[in-house]
Amino acid sequence: MQTYPKASLVRVKGKWYVQATIPPHLREAFKGKKQLRRSTGTSDRGEAERRLHGKAGEIFEEFRRAERLHDPLTNAANALSQYLPGEPSWSSEDWEPESFSRSEWRIEALYYNFMHVDPFGLEGPEDYILLGQMRDKAEQLYYDYRDELERRKASGPRSTRCVSSVSEELIANRKFGRQKTRQDHERAVQKFIAFAGDLPISQVDRPLALSFVDELAQRLAHNTLQRDVTFVRQVFAFALDRGWIDRNPFEGVSLRGKGASSTRRIPFRPSQLQRLFALDMKPQDRLCLSILAATGMRLDEVALLEWQDIRDEGGIRYFDLQRMHKVVKNETAARQVPVPSALRLPPRGVGRLFTYRRDADGKAQNAASKALMKYIRKVRDDQTDSRLTVHSLRHTYKDALREAGVPEEVQNFLMGHSGAGQGSRYGSGPSLAVKAKWVETLDLSFLNGKTDKQLKVA
Question: 274 vs 61, 394, 417, 435, 451, CA distance in Å?
Fold first, then answer.
C-alpha cells in the first residue's frame, strides 16, 4: 500500500515552502525529482503554518493526478485499444469496483471481434497481411493487459476515488442540521488529507488510520479528537456502503485515553464578579452579562433573546424559551426562566435585545463571546488562564443555587439540565412561582456595579 509522506515546512532564501517527498513510483512523472515544493508566499512562520494545509493539498492533488496517469492497468488497456474497433479510451475510473466487470467485458468483446471477425472492405492479400500483423501486435498487448488485470484482481478491484471526492459526495447526499457541522466535517477531512495526502480511498489501511489518530491526539483535546475522527470515519463508512472499499479502516479505533483533557471552567469569585460589573461597558454588553449572571442561561440563549421572549404570568416576569420555533440546544433547554427583581431591564422594545451578529446557522454566541471576553480577561488573576470565560458565569450561577439550598429538581429546570430518572420527562416541572421564589433567595448584589474605590472601602 502506497501512502504519501507528510508535508512539512522548509525555509529557502528567507521564504517558507511546503515540501513533500515524491513517492518513488511517481518520480518519473516529475522528471526524476525527489521532492515537490510549493511556496507559501510568506517569510512569517506562523502565517506559513496557517497556509500549510492548503499548499499540501495542492501537492497531493498533483500526486493523485500522476497516480491516475500512471495506473498500469489503465495504460495496458489503452495500449491494446489502439488496435480495437473504435479505439476506445480508458481512464482509472473505468476500473472502479462498480465499473470493473463492465470494462473487462467490453474489452473482451472488442478483442474477440477484432481477432475472429474479418472487417468489411478487405480487397487483396496485402490487406490480409496487414490485418495479420495488427492481430499479432494486439495479441501481445492483450497478454500484457491480462497480466495487469490479474494483478489487479489478486488485490481486489480498487477504487481510485480520492478521499476528497468521496467526502464531497457524502456532503452532497447528507443533510447537515447546521452549517457549522458541515464546516467541522470539511476541516476534519482536510486534516486527514494534510497528514496522508488525498489518497485513493482504497489505499487507506488500518495502520495509516491509527497513525493519523495518534498524530491528532498529540495536539488536540479529547473531545475535538473524537469529533474529527468521527467525521473522517463517516467518509469511509459512506465509501463502504457503496462498495468502493472492503472495510472501514477507522471502524473500532479506540480513542480512550487519547487527546488532552478538556479545559474545565472555573466559577467567578465574589470579588471578581464585583470587579466585572464595576467596569465601563457598552450598554448591551452590560445587559448581556447581567442576564447571564442573574439567570445562568447559556450565552446563545441570551444573545438571541427577543423582546417577545420576555413575558408576564401572574405578576411574575420571565424569559420564555419555550416559544414556538425558538432555537434552543435541546428539549430540556426549552424552559421558563424567572427574571429576578435585582435584574433591571431597559424599556421594552421590539425585535432582538442585542445586535450581536448571527452566523450561517442563526447563532450569535461567537460574536457575543468575542465582545464580552474583553471584560472577562480584565478580571482574571492571570491573563493566560483560559478557565475563566463567559461560560464561567453559568458555573457561578450553579454554585449559587447549591449554596442557597435550591432543590436539585428546581436547579435542573432553571438551568435546562436533564433530570435524573424517567419521571423527569413528564410534566413541565416546578411551577413558575416556585422557581421565582427560589431565584429571589440568591445574592445578586454584584449587579449594582461597585467601583474599584468602593470595593476598597468595603
Answer: 56, 16, 27, 25, 8
Q: What is the pLDDT of residue 157?
A: 56
Question: Is 251:208 a contact under the CB 8 Å cutoff?
Answer: no
Cα radius of gyration (the chain): 33
Of 36-45, 68-77, 160-169, which range is least confident? 68-77
Closest to 163 measured CA to CA, from 121, 128, 127, 208: 208
Domain ranges of the chain: 72-154, 160-262, 270-457
As to burial, measured by CB atoms within 10 angstroms (0-12 exposed, 13-18 middle, 19+ buried), residue 248 is: buried
The fourth-level CATH superfamily of domain 160-262 is Tyrosine recombinase, N-terminal domain (1.10.150.130)
For residue 306, report the phi and psi dihedrals to the nearest 5 degrees: -115, 160
Alpha helices in 299-424 (DSSP H): 299-303, 365-376, 392-403, 408-415
**Distance, CA of 414 to CA of 429 (rounded, Å):** 10
Cell 467567578, residue?
268
- Range 300-323 average pLDDT: 91
- What long-range pairs does 112-121 form, CB within 8 A, spacing at least 24? 113/85, 114/83, 114/84, 114/85, 114/138, 115/139, 119/85
| CA atoms within a 13 Å half-sphere pointing along the CA-CB vector of 94 | 20
Nearest to 160 by CA among 222, 213, 98, 84: 98
Report the distance separating Cα 85 and Cα 386, nearest Å.
71
Residue given cell 416556585 in the structure block: 434
Give the Cα-Cα-Cα angle 28, 33, 39 (nearest 5 degrees): 130
Cell numbers at 288, concatenated: 448581556
- Phi/psi zone of residue 405: left (φ > 0), alpha (ψ -120 to 50 degrees), beta? left
Q: Are 63 and 30 in contact (CB under 8 A)?
A: no
**Superfamily for the 270-457 domain:** Intergrase catalytic core (1.10.443.10)
Cell of 318: 420571565
263 conformational bin, left if phi > 0, alpha if psi -120 to 50, beta if neither? beta
Residue-wise pLDDT tens digits, 53-101:
888 888 888 887 787 677 788 888 989 998 888 767 887 778 777 788 8
State pTM to two decimals: 0.55
Q: What are phi and psi of 244, to 5 degrees?
A: -85, -20
Number of H helices, E strands in the chain: 16, 6
- Total residues found in the chain within this entry: 458
